[in-house]
Amino acid sequence: MIKARGLARQFRARGHTVDAVQGVDIDVSRGELVGFLGPNGAGKSTTLRMLTTLLRPTAGEAVVAGCDLLSDPAGVRKRIGYVAQGHSSGDEQKVIEELVLQGRFYGLAAGESRRRADELLERFDLTEIAGRTAGKLSGGQKRRLDIAMGVIHSPELLFLDEPSTGLDPQSRSNLWDRIRSLRATGTTIFLTTHYLDEADALCDRILVIDHGKIVAEGTPDSLKNQVAGDLVQFETGAPAAAAEIAAKVDGAQELHVDGNTVRFRVAKGDTVLPLLLRQLDQADASLLSIQVHRPTLDDVFLTMTGRSLREESHA
Ligand SMILES: Nc1ncnc2c1ncn2[C@@H]1O[C@H](COP(=O)(O)OP(=O)(O)OP(=O)(O)O)[C@@H](O)[C@H]1O
């Protein structure tokens, strides 16, 4: 659905050249929900604006929804939906009017546009507020209206730029459900985010971008597995004996003993637990508690770039 090669964009600002995107390759298959994750200024929006024909690449090429980005931008625009950051609909119109107008804008006949608008109102939980002016909606309702408008023409591929920025937790989770339901009906989705939990919860696959380059790529789980592994941590009454046992666990790394707490990293924590528990029991090393922590996407970003994504995105 997306095949981009060496896509790059330079900006000139006050005599400087900014290499916002430095030659990215992107492959997205039909039906996938792919997240583009990176800190502020990493190049996410610039890439999205290139893929949606709003910005001409300085170098590279791409085929988007079956059309060549450079030679057939109109073909790309017809087949995709794009929901930019922030609220894009007019504030004076009623919700239903916004949707019908958007459908007409995409060339739907009046009756068809109305039918489609009603369907989307239902699907995005907006039916009850169809007669309200768009300017009076809550943040979550506005964002759902934006997405409904972005898919009025039933695009095969939907681009969402930071869909949940600024929403409270309940509205975010509601929005995630709507995004999942769009994907379940066959829409391919490419979204940008700087929220790790969003990428983790929603995406089949994640591309991590930093300083205009893709630094990691994979499913949330495979990315986490690239990091040193799970952290196994337990409290025991016999830390010295327990540490000796832990040191012999197949693949154990970074063993630390801190008072009664023993911790180490291992590729798959849950698979080493049964044997570890048995051995601790045989050695009479009483166990007070034990936990296995999966690495987070933040650990992935830290490993790839040496910096914490969380710190940057909240800066
Ligand atoms: N029109 C422009 N002129 C000059 N520099 C620009 C322009 N647009 C973007 N940039 C620069 O390009 C880099 C990438 O910006 P971009 O908006 O793509 O990042 P982003 O990952 O989307 O960040 P955010 O999460 O803040 O939206 C930044 O350094 C930005 O300052």
TrEMBL record:
Pfam families: ABC_tran, DrrA1-3_C
Keywords, in A-Z order: Antibiotic resistance, ATP-binding, Cell membrane, Membrane, Nucleotide-binding, Translocase, Transport
GO terms of molecular function: ATP binding
Subcellular location per the Swiss-Prot or TrEMBL entry: Cell membrane
Domain ABC transporter: 2-236
Organism domain of life: Bacteria
Record has Plastid as a keyword: no
PANTHER family linked to this entry: ABC TRANSPORTER ATP-BINDING PROTEIN (PTHR42711), DOXORUBICIN RESISTANCE ATP-BINDING PROTEIN DRRA (PTHR42711:SF19)
Family of the protein in this entry: Belongs to the ABC transporter superfamily. Drug exporter-1 (DrugE1) (TC 3.A.1.105) family.
Protein name as annotated: ABC-2 type transport system ATP-binding protein
